[in-house]
Amino acid sequence: MPSSRRSFLAAGLALPAAGAAAAARPSLNTPALSPPSTPLQASAGPRYRVVGKTGIKATTVAFGCMITSDQSVIERAVEMGINWFDTARGYQGGNNERMVGAALKGKRKSLTLSSKTGARTKEAALADLETSLRELATDYLDIWHLHAKSKPAEITDDLLEAQELARKQGKIRFAGVSTHSGFADLIPHLIKVGKTDVLLTSYNFTMGPEIAQLIDAAHNAGMGVVGMKLMAGGFRRVRESDPLRAKLEREGAMVAALKWALRNPHMHTCIPSMTDMEQLEENFRAMSSPFTEADGKLLAAQLEHIRPLYCRMCGRCDGVCPKGMPVPEVLRYLSYAEGYGEYRLARES
Fold first, then answer.
1. How many contiguous H segments (helices) and E segments (strands) does the chain have?
2. Given pLDDT bands bounded at 50, 70 and 90, which one contains residue 208?
């Protein structure tokens, strides 16, 4: 049954209500949702979930390395117990993999490492893999993703053959696909084909209820599910002069967004970006912190502000503008610049 993003947010942000109140119609600020079957615990420390049929036991908060430039933050994350690190061949002009490899030197066997290729042919993908292995100073990847796919037609037999060959050669353990949009067509296709072990997908409090249903379907098919774009662009879209920015930054809207995603027991792990020790500490604590009514109100305020600004990657604008530019991709690159403050990444993209 169709449902608006507003009602989805209300259900997702809310807390369980007692007695007859549980049947009341939810609003942005009204408790309504019963807790997930695997609720977060209150004590500090890492929490784990098994990532689909891979059998990998991952910390529920992993480390997205895309915009990290300080190697010591990654090293500290390992010391704290985070055991999953995600990068890609194209991040930071190829330099990100090299930095991640240096940070994880000597610790590789106890960690899960994933990378991605944006190549469109078997030969180019396998060449990317060789470069990734060299830059990361490792003999294998735990997960190797076909990167930024949004249509079933982009998951070619050629690319699936590249993943299968790499697996047979022992250069990867599991095959993955990452997607920012086109979920309604792409995820059912991946489930039907049955050759993808791990799905890396956008997932945050701004998105409609359909994505949660698709995540459930992927989980039920035995696929591992990893979340990205969890903060919906961050608080940087709020102007410096706006009092709301100080409130969102001070009271932890981004941590609230992460805790919102972790409420879904079928979200096996998440890869928020972390650029400094403060973000690392906050995200680490989110693993063992309950999602509260105050968190819900904070996210409701954030949603109201970014509603006309943030691209939800729904795919409805799929196509090109009169000048031939691909609309969804351009909006995603804009979010890198305005949402994350990563102007270099936006320009490179």
1. 13, 10
2. confident
**If 0-12 CB within 10 Å is exposed, 13-18 middle and 19+ buried, where does residue 294 land?**
exposed
- Biggest alpha carbon distance in the chain? 60
Rounded (10°) angle between helices 293-306 and 5-13: 160
- Residues with Cβ < 8 Å from 130, sequence gap 6 or more? none
Quick check: helix, strand or coil at residue 18? coil
Residue 113 bridge partners (DSSP): 85
The C-alpha atoms of residue 52 and residue 314 are separated, in whole angstroms, by: 25
* Strand, coil or helix: 65: coil
In which band, very low, low, confident or very high, does the pLDDT at 244 lie, cut at 50, 70 and 90? low
End-to-end CA distance of the chain: 37
Alpha-carbon gap, residue 61 to 284, rounded angstroms: 7
Q: What are 271's two structure tokens?
A: 């890869």
Spell out where the chain has E strands: 48-50, 57-59, 63-64, 84-86, 112-117, 141-146, 172-179, 198-202, 224-228, 269-270
Is the model's pTM score more than 0.85?
Answer: no
Percent of the chain with pLDDT over 70: 75
Q: How confident is the model at residue 242 (pLDDT cuts 50, 70, 90)?
A: low
C-alpha distances (whole Å) from 198 to each of 30, 179, 304 are 35, 11, 33
pLDDT at residue 234, as a whole number: 61
* Residue with token string 């930054």: 249
Structure tokens of 197?
């072990």
* Residue 18 backbone zone (phi > 0: left; psi -120 to 50: alpha; other: beta): beta
Averaged pLDDT for residues 46-61? 98
Instruction: With beta carbons less than 8 A apart as the criterion, state whether 228 and 202 touch.
Output: yes
The average pLDDT across 150-168 equals 97
Q: How many CB atoms lie within 10 A of CB 346?
A: 18
Query: Strand order in 172-179's β-sheet?
Result: 63-64, 84-86, 112-117, 141-146, 172-179, 198-202, 224-228, 269-270
